[in-house]
Amino acid sequence: MDLIAWIGRLVFFLLALWLALENTATVPLRLGASLQWQNVPLLFVMLGCFVAGAVAGSVALVPRILRLRRQIAQPARTERVVQQAAEIALTRAARQGGAAGDLELETRNRR
What we know:
By secondary structure, this protein is mainly alpha-helical. It has one domain (2-110). Helices cover 76% and strands 10% of the residues. It is built from three helices and two strands; from the N terminus they run H-E-E-H-H. It has helices spanning 2-22, 42-96, 103-110, and strands spanning 26-30, 36-41. Strands 1-2 form a two-stranded antiparallel ribbon. The longest helix is centred in the middle third of the chain and has 55 residues, at 42-96. The protein starts with a helix and ends with a helix.
């Protein structure tokens, strides 16, 4: 499986290298009426667009990642609440059954 991954990386690198070597021409780059450059290599324009897209995609994923982290953390919080409720119920049941009065102290010390 690692061999297939490395072959895929090699193919991607060779395609990127071929694209870079084929696009050595210069192009005018205009970002506004007053901001423009006349001779910018096409490769830099393409690389800049790729980086801008990667950054925009990463920023777009941030809310989803935070939501998923909250969902992962929620069962741990719920588990603690359930455990505390079970301890309280056990203490009440022991008291009603005539257990010794030290049971409450033992339960409090475990927390």
